Amino acid sequence: xxxxxxxxxxxxxxxxxxxxxxxxxxxxxxxxxxxxxxxxxxxxxxxxxxxxxxxxxxxxxxxxxxxxxxxxxxxxxxxxxxxxxxxxxxxxxxxxxxxxxxxxxxxxxxxxxxxxxxxxxxxxxxxxxxxxxxxxxxxxxxxxxxxxxxxxxxxxxxxxxxxxxxxxxxxxxxxxxxxxxxxxxxxxxxxxxxxxxxxxxxxxxxxxxxxxxxxxxxxxxxxxxxxxxxxxxxxxxxxxxxxxxxxxxx
Amino acid sequence: xxxxxxxxxxxxxxxxxxxxxxxxxxxxxxxxxxxxxxxxxxxxxxxxxxxxxxxxxxxxxxxxxxxxxxxxxxxxxxxxxxxxxxxxxxxxxxxxxxxxxxxxxxxxxxxxxxxxxxxxxxxxxxxxxxxxxxxxxxxxxxxxxxxxxxxxxxxxxxxxxxxxxxxxxxxxxxxxxxxxxxxx
Lengths: 250, 184
Description:
Chain A is an alpha+beta fold and about 250 residues long. Chain A has helices spanning about 5-15, 20-30, 35-55, 65-80, 85-90, 95-115, 120-135, and strands spanning about 140-145, 155-160, 165-170, 180-185, 195-200, 205-210, 220-230, 240-245. The longest helix of chain A is centred in the middle third of the chain and has 22 residues, at about 95-115.
C-alpha cells in the first residue's frame, strides 16, 4: 500500500504517461480522493505544455490545413449519430436545407397573412423566389468551395444557366462583425464585376440569398463571396470566402 | 464578432456548438506547435502531419468534454498532442521489425546552443533556461519519458539505472521545473 506522499511522487510520471499500468491504476484510484494530488497533476500537465513550447517551431506544410479540416468534414459525415456530427451532416444535407426553407416560407406566409406587415411581405417574396429558383433548377446545385481563408465554407448555387436569377445557400461561413455582410460578385471573362446580392448568416454560418444579375448566368466566368464591411456592395476589396469558376463548375 | 479576438476557451466553446470556423481558428493558433512537437518526437514529417490531423479531429470530437475550470485549452491540446505522439512511438516499438535502438540521450536543443536559444521566442528561452538548471541525469530521464515515450521501467532497463533511482530523478526534475516554470 503506497502512502499519500509516495503517490504524490508518482504524479509527474503519471502526467507523462510513464508509469506501468499497475502503478497508473493506483494513481487513478487515488486522485478522486486527494485534492493535493489533483492540483499537482494539473501543474505537471502545465509543465508538459511548457516543454512542448521549448521545441523549435518549424513551418507547417502548406496543404496540411486543408487536409486536416477536410478530414473533419469526412469524419462528421461518418459519425452521423453523434450530436455534433449529426448537426454538421444536416448542414450538408441540402434537401433538408431546402425543406427548412420551405418550412420558413410557410411560416412567413402565415405571419404575413396574419399581420399584413410590409417588411415581412418583402421577406416572404424573397423566400418564395428562392424556393421557385431552387425548384426550377430541379434541385441541381453547383458546389462552391471555401478558399484557404475558410476551407470548410461551402456554397450551393441553384440556377439555370439561361436565367439571370440564382439562389445561393451557404454553410460554415465565418462569423461576421455587426457591421459586415457577405457580398456576392459575378465576374465576366473581360474582368467586369457585377454585384449580385448581399446576405448575412445565422450563428451556425448558414445563409441564403437570391442573386439577380443583369445578364444570364452563362455570361459570367466566376463568382465570389466576399466579406465586406458596412454592407457595401463594392466588388473590389474584402476577404474572399467562397470562389468558383462558373465555366468549370460541374 | 471577430474570431481572432476570441480567447482559446471561447473558441473551443464554439467548437462544442459545431462551429467549424472555430476549429480553423484554433488550427491557425496551434497547428505549428503540434506539428513541431510531433516532428521532434517522431522525426518523420508524414507521421507528424498525421498527428496534426488526428489531434484536431479529437479537438472537434471532444470539444464538449473540455472543462475550462480544470485547465487552459493549450494545456489540454498539448496533452492530446503528446499522447498521440507517444502512442505512435509505442506502436512503432511494438512492430516486429528490427529498428535502430533509440538512444536515451539529451536532445540537441537542450542546453549548450545559447545562440539558438537567444534567437528563439521568449517563452522558449524561458523553458530552455529552466531546463538548463536541472541536473543532466534528471533532464535525461524527463527527455526519455517526454520525447521518446519510454515508461520508467523501460528507462531503467535501457540505462541500467535502478528503477527507484529513475523514479526519484524524474520526480525531482519535474518538481524543479514546476517551481521554475509555474512560480515565476
